[in-house]
Amino acid sequence: MTDANNILALLQRPLEPTFMPKDDGKTVIDLPDEFLTDRYRQIGADLQSRFSNDAEQRIPVRSVAMPDLSFANGIDRRGAFSLFAPKHRDAAAALINLFLKQPDFASLMSVATYCRDRLNPVLFQYSLAVAVQHREDTKDVNIPSIVSLFPDQFVDPAVFPKLREEGAAVQQENRMVIDIPPNYTASDREDEQRMAYFREDIGVNMHHWHWHLVYPGDGPDQVVRKDRRGELFFYMHSQLIARYNADRFCAKLKKVRNLTNYREPIVEGYYPKMIRSSNNRSYPARAANTTLQDVDRVDNGTTVSVNDLERWRDRIHEAIDQGFVLDKSGNRIMLDEQRGIDILGDVVEASSLTPNAQLYGSLHNMGHNVIAYVHDPDYRYLEDYGVMGDVTTAMRDPIFYRWHGMIDGIFRRHKELLTPYTAEQLGNPGVSVNSVGVQLSRPNTPANVLLTYWQRSQVDLAAGLDFGPKGNVFASFTHLQHAPFSFRVEVNNESGAVRKGTLRIWLAPKSDERGTALTFREQRRYFIEMDTSTVTLNPGMNTIVRRSDQSSVTIPYERTFRAIGTKSAPTDKDALAQFRFCGCGWPQHMLVPKGSPEGVQFDLFAMVTDFEQDSVAQELDPNAPCNDAHSFCGLRDKKYPDRPAMGYPFDRRTADTVATLADFVTPNSNMKTATVLVKFNNTVIART
């Protein structure tokens, strides 16, 4: 049987011709002569022999009828590709469909090989990755981290000449690790630069890319239509904003000011200092106090006005206030407690599932475009989009959080109209939480104190250095990290029988950037999910311990930055089970807010709900891949495993009498809080 991992050879060094060796020269793809592009067809025999002499593995590719690729006409192979541009999104949907309809893996390998040298590499990589994750014969193939394929979208370009020099001049065993400087986009004269460690974190941006890979907005219905997809769009991005605001308070910065007025100047400038490897042009900057303008791009057909954004926003607001949206036939679709947020997610994004694109438009996507082209809205200066035009780079820009803060405000408008949770919906009779706390894994450390610091890690960028050296070329980067810890929850089961429950653990800042205590109405929006798990409660007292690396929100460093190559997967059965993971999840090293040297106080909240009320009827394999970061990413090929609304119990308003978190918790014996101090140590520790 053909090894499905062979498809990974097509992902390496995206701009190199397919006939060039992969896997550090060990693998060669044997191309039919007709698959070579016009530039190389006349010298095909010489090329095939020249580059295949040292190969340990040869991947045969059979001839097939050449597919029609006219859907990608006008998308320059060496140009920029954006999932926010309608023409580009349509091309990606067509290419995904082409890959999905291939009858077997050999046909997929042949068609993908033919396409690779003829299409824009980002279009090709994205579409193939989506198809691989949704085909039965390839869904266990591990998509490599995008930082190893397109390092230009994550890394200071100043390191690339150093990497190439080191790779070309020095033998593998003597190569040095090239350091990527932190905070290279602005000086400390810019207040927003205090958040660069968050915005420009490689793992954070890779999470955003991989989430949109798992939940594409356009494509075949079988790819787009996933359980509670629209609600997940709301929840994942809402949690991004909550986490960002929590870290802003730690940095003594005000909460994000949502971009609700599209006509006023954008005070934040952003100079990304990044270069696209496909055409060697820099990502354009946005000067401070720039005003949004109508976009009319003749290069990719993107046309949208600021008035369009305002009209779509107002229509969505009207739908929320009325309690229903209209489909294309004028029928009402109610925005109720069960499906309302899911429908709104599809409308606001807008994915291909939106019930009425003509009426409600594409607010989220086109907003990204208006911001991304603010420097050259009519293609007068032949400039490509800025970082907001790409899901791999958008989170680097401070305006991303203002834009998504506004988007989150739309969803919150709907949530505020819902009836507050009743005592029955919040309670769990017979179960009481007696205490909750955290404890660092190191011995003799105080309880309820978390520690963060800088960590220096390494990533191999060789697979993304087109026409670069053989072997590994490592770069080191500095990121936030926390000391390992555990949650410890004491739960009393008074029912007299064994019961199952859902343990929900949240964290929220107690005060804002000035040290002013937050009201519960304000604090609700800043609760960040730390872990959700199923627990078995024996009669009497139960002590539940959950390690920080077991969080349902995160994936570990090894999966965020996993290796690339047809032979990169481990062969040991247990190791392979761990490796087979879709890569979607918040990076483990960013689980805990940064805190401060003197310590920042947070409210730790634990709640145990009734598993029988929470569970979703479906067959689950606890050892299945893609299960351990379900809070943001769901389960592959399954329903979302938690029945309550995402964000429960903090997603709805409370009665006017609830002024503090204590007022919310006290009537419910299945809830408990504790105060946690997060302290930051300004030292750099190398990853072992």
Task: From the structure above, extract its key features.
688 residues, alpha+beta, Hemocyanin, N-terminal domain, di-copper center containing domain from catechol oxidase, Immunoglobulin-like, seven-stranded mixed β-sheet, three-stranded antiparallel β-sheet, 23 helices, 20 strands
Structural account:
The protein is of the alpha+beta class. It folds into three domains: 3-141, Hemocyanin, N-terminal domain, CATH 1.20.1370; 191-417, Di-copper center containing domain from catechol oxidase (di-copper center containing domain from catechol oxidase), CATH 1.10.1280; 423-441 and 489-590 and 603-675, Hemocyanin, C-terminal domain (Immunoglobulin-like, Sandwich), CATH 2.60.40.1520. A seven-stranded mixed β-sheet has the order 3-12-11-20-19-14-15. A three-stranded antiparallel β-sheet has the order 10-13-16, with no helix packed on it. A two-stranded parallel sheet has the order 1-2. Strand 4 (275-276) and strand 5 (281-282) form a beta hairpin. The model is unreliable at 564-571 and 573-581 (pLDDT under 50).
